[in-house]
C-alpha cells in the first residue's frame, strides 16, 4: 500500500486533511473526483471541533468512526415507490399524463437492481387509499371548498389544485385532484405482477388517512404523521438510500426530498423512474441536487452501494449531518 500523502505526527493540517479527502473521493475505477475547495474547508471545520486549525488524534478517531467508515462501507436501502397497477395500466396510468411516459418501463431496471445488488434492506411503498380519499376527483363534494379557492366545486377537474376549507387540524388545505386510484385491497393498488419482490422486504403503506394525501413514503403531505419507513431504516442503521419508481415528479420526488431531510445519503435512480410532466421532472432533478442528493443511473448503483464509488457530495452530506446532530446535543 502506498504511503499516505502526509506525514503523521498526531495532527492533520487542513492541507493534509484535504489530501486525505482527495484520496478518498474516487470513482470505482480509482479516478479522483474534482473537489471544491470550499467543500473541503467546510468538512475540515466540522471535524476540527476545538477550532485549533488541526485535527488531532481524538478528532480523527471521531472522523474515522463516524465519517470515513460510512463513506467506504455504506449500509444501503433500495426504496421502490408505488410501482402499482393503477399508475401503469389503471385509472391513473401515467401514459395519460402530459409527459406520456410508460410506467411499465421502470420494471426491468428495478428488477436488474435487485438481481445485481445486495441491499441491506429493500422497501416497497404503496399508495393505499380509503374509498373516500381527499385526492379523488369524485369525492370533492364531500368537503367544503375554501372561499378563496379559484375553482368552483362543480367545475373541478383532474389535475386541478383546489383548496378545501379545513382539514382535521382546522387549517385550509391545498389538494391536487386525481382520478380514483390505489383503493385499498383492489387490483389497482397491487404491485405490478412483473415487479420482482425481494426476500424479507418491507412494505410501507401511505395515504391511508382519508383527509390527508401522502406523496412521500416518509410523511403525509402536511408533515403531521410519519409512515413506518424512517423507523425501519433507523433500526437497521441505514446510511444510503437509493430511490426509484412512480411518479418521478410526485411521489418519488417527495420521498427523495424527505430522505435527504431525514439525514440519509440519497440517490435517485433516474432510469428507474417515470413521471407525469417533463418540466416537473427537470425541476425535481434540480431540487434534489441543490440539497446534496445525487441523480444516478442504475449502472452506477453497484459501485455506490459497495463504497467503491465515493462522490464528494455524499461525503459532504454526511459531514453536514454529523455537524447538525452534534449541535442538537
Task: Explain how this protein is built.
- This protein is α/β, with parallel strands linked by helices.
- Helix content is 33%, strand content 16%.
- It has three domains: 1-73 and 307-329, Recoverin, domain 1; 78-135 and 188-304, Rossmann fold; 137-177, no CATH class.
- A six-stranded parallel beta sheet has the order 7-4-3-8-9-10. It has a two-stranded antiparallel ribbon with strand order 1-2.
- β5 and β6 (173-176) form a beta hairpin.
- The longest helix is centred in the C-terminal third of the chain and has 17 residues, at 312-328.
Short key terms for the protein model shown above:
alpha/beta, Rossmann fold, two-stranded antiparallel ribbon, 10 strands, 16% strand, disordered N terminus
CATH architecture label name of the largest domain: 3-Layer(aba) Sandwich
Q: Can you give the helix content as a percent range?
A: 25-40%
CATH first level of the largest domain: Alpha Beta
- In the residues, how many domains can be counted? 3
- Shape summary: elongated
The N- and C-terminal alpha carbons lie at a distance of: 39 Å
Strand order of the largest sheet: 7-4-3-8-9-10
Q: Structural class, judged by helices and strands? A: alpha/beta
* Annotated CATH homologous superfamily of the largest domain: Isochorismatase-like
On the 0 to 100 scale, the average pLDDT is 94
User: What's the total helix number?
Assistant: 10
Q: Could you tell me the CATH topology label of the largest domain.
A: Rossmann fold
Strand content: 15-25%
Q: Tell me about the largest β-sheet.
A: 6 strands, parallel
DSSP, total strands: 10
Amino acid at each position: 500500500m502506498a504511503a499516505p500523502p502526509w506525514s503523521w505526527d498526531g495532527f492533520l493540517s487542513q492541507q493534509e486533511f484535504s489530501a486525505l479527502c482527495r484520496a478518498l473521493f474516487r470513482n470505482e475505477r480509482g479516478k479522483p473526483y474534482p473537489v471544491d475547495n470550499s467543500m473541503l474547508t467546510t468538512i475540515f471545520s466540522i471535524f476540527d471541533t476545538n477550532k485549533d486549525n488541526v485535527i488531532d488524534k481524538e478528532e480523527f478517531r471521531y472522523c474515522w468512526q463516524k465519517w470515513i467508515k460510512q463513506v467506504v462501507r455504506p449500509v444501503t436501502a433500495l426504496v421502490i415507490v408505488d410501482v402499482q397497477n393503477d399508475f401503469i395500466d389503471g385509472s391513473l396510468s401515467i401514459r395519460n399524463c402530459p409527459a406520456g411516459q410508460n410506467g411499465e418501463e421502470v420494471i426491468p431496471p428495478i428488477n436488474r437492481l435487485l438481481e445485481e445488488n445486495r441491499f441491506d434492506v429493500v422497501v416497497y411503498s404503496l399508495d393505499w387509499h380509503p374509498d373516500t380519499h381527499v385526492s379523488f376527483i369524485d369525492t370533492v363534494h364531500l368537503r367544503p371548498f375554501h372561499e378563496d379557492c379559484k375553482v368552483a366545486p362543480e367545475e373541478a377537474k383532474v389535475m386541478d389544485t383546489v383548496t378545501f376549507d379545513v382539514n382535521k387540524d382546522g387549517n385550509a388545505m391545498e389538494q391536487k385532484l386525481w382520478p380514483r386510484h390505489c383503493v385499498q385491497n383492489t387490483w389497482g393498488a397491487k404491485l405490478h405482477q412483473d415487479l420482482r419482490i425481494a426476500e424479507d422486504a418491507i412494505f410501507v403503506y401511505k395515504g391511508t388517512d382519508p383527509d390527508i394525501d401522502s406523496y412521500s413514503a416518509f410523511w403525509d403531505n402536511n408533515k403531521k404523521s410519519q409512515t413506518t419507513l424512517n423507523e425501519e431504516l433507523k433500526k437497521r442503521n441505514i446510511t444510503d438510500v437509493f430511490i426509484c419508481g412512480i411518479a418521478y415528479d410526485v411521489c418519488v420526488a417527495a420521498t427523495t426530498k424527505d430522505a435527504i431531510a431525514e439525514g440519509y445519503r440519497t440517490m435517485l435512480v433516474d432510469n428507474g423512474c417515470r413521471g407525469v410532466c417533463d418540466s416537473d421532472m427537470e425541476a425535481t432533478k434540480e431540487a434534489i441536487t441543490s440539497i446534496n442528493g445525487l441523480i444516478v443511473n442504475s449502472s452506477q448503483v453497484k459501485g455506490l452501494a459497495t463504497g467503491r464509488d465515493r462522490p464528494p457530495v455524499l461525503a459532504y452530506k454526511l459531514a453536514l449531518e454529523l455537524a447538525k446532530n452534534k449541535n442538537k446535543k
